[in-house]
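Re: zinc ion structure - here you go.
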Amino acid sequence: MITALQSGCITSRILLDGHDYLQRLALNNKVVVEWIPGHAGHSGNELADELARKYTRGDNVPRAYGPEPIVPIAYAVVRENVKKGLDKRHQEIWRNSKIKHKLIPGPLKGTGTVVKKSRLATRILTYVYSGHAPLNKYLYRIGLSDSPSCKCGLDDETVVHHICECPLFIRQRLVYLYEGIANKGMIAIAQQSDLVAFIMASKRFSRSLE
Ligand SMILES: [Zn+2]
């Protein structure tokens, strides 16, 4: 430190801080910087050692390992960066996925919460997001319905038609999804609990949920 200060060229933050402290001290004092051997009974040095020991022994003191000087990083910053890294990886996996997700443009926020929901809710949401729901369009394709059309007669009974457009379910849609008729983008942004509530109220999946 002393050698570095003498060189007149400051290359690190810790040196700059040291330099500034000495300058401030020198405003009203005569300051002599002198090297002393450590652990040799010099009172100031012993006090500094004692304070350092006390600090590192404290219960709430974060421990750091690695080459000094240690630059402390707040736990929140580390957590935020880990989260960002995981989100990025999630997006990559999504982009490279071969599965086609027609209804959702990207990974859903908070999808992890699906796992914590009941098995019933998880099944409903899987139907919804995959588009393979027990509705006429899909049932017809696998031979379980005579027609792909919806009862309303306006369109094929798909997940988008059922959740967003079918006039037979305007009431349930208004109650649980807050819109009478919606566009398909609503499925990606709706609360999962609201989607589940709407599906349960519409009773259209019930045969497959028993
Ligand atoms: Zn319909």
